[in-house]
Amino acid sequence: MFALTVLYDPDCGLCRRAHEWLADQPKIVEMKFVPCASEDARRRYPKLDHELTKKDLTVIGEDGAVYFGPKGWLMVLWALSRYREWSYRLSSPELLPTTKRVVSAISQNRYQIGRAAGLTR
Amino acid sequence: MTIGITTYLIYLAISIALTIWVARTLHKNGRVFLVDVFHGNEALADSVNHLLVVGFYLINFGYVSMALKLGYVINNAQEGIEALSVKIGMVLIVLGGMHFFNLFVFSRMRRRTTNHHNPPVAPDAFTAVQEG
After folding, report:
1. Coil, strand or helix at A116
2. Interface TM-score (ipTM) > 0.85
3. Which domains does chain A have, with CATH numbers?
4. Is residue A12 pLDDT above 60, yes or no?
5. Bigger pLDDT: B111 vs B2
6. B127/A91 CB distance under 8 A
7. Residue A75, min C-alpha distance to chain B (Å)
8. Which residue, of A107, B1, B80, B114, has the fewest CB within 10 Å?
9. Closest Cα of chain B to A68: distance in Å?
10. B23-29 — which CB contacts under 8 Å span 24+ positions?
11. Chain A residue closest to B125 (CA)?
């Protein structure tokens, strides 16, 4: 697997900010950013449940492996050379439940967090 | 030669011999480790090994030289031996600390290269990919 496709929510300020941050990070694995449920996404992944991808971050490998929600976040960390260690640390059996809870909480409240931080369109 | 000077000379001789011995041990046994870390690239392993040993020598000789001064006058052989044992003890502790630090560096390098390719989590599902 040499590249990851990241399906992100283009309507969320926090996600756009995260996208900008990711663009500057040195990467081990190439990442392609595609707005979720867009034409492009539907053409590339005809069998994927695109309604579900609107709910949380979805990362897809070149081989079609789908990482949804917290797993998607971990895969993004794994792709960054500075944070690969962290992806293993946060996915260890001791920390994975906490990681999932925290990431889900952020993800579900992303519009409110974005607004509170002044990251509107 | 006064007892003070004799103490200094014995201190230097023992410290230098100890440093050389530890550095050689590190150099000899660390090589296998580094060759593994650098995936069998022996030239690179030897180069890093040599650089580590140079750093090791510099820090230890630096410490030995700075810790030489006693600061008080030694009157008899007993005081000389006591002063010597404190000084040598400190050198041994510093050498031990450096040695463990080196081991730490080695193990960190090793960990960095192992277990570094697999994704941290298993995928939730597989989907068909339409190229282009």
Report:
1. helix
2. no
3. 3-116 (3.40.30)
4. yes
5. B2
6. no
7. 7
8. B1
9. 7
10. B23/B53, B23/B56, B23/B57, B23/B60, B26/B52, B26/B53, B26/B56, B26/B99, B26/B102, B27/B53
11. A66
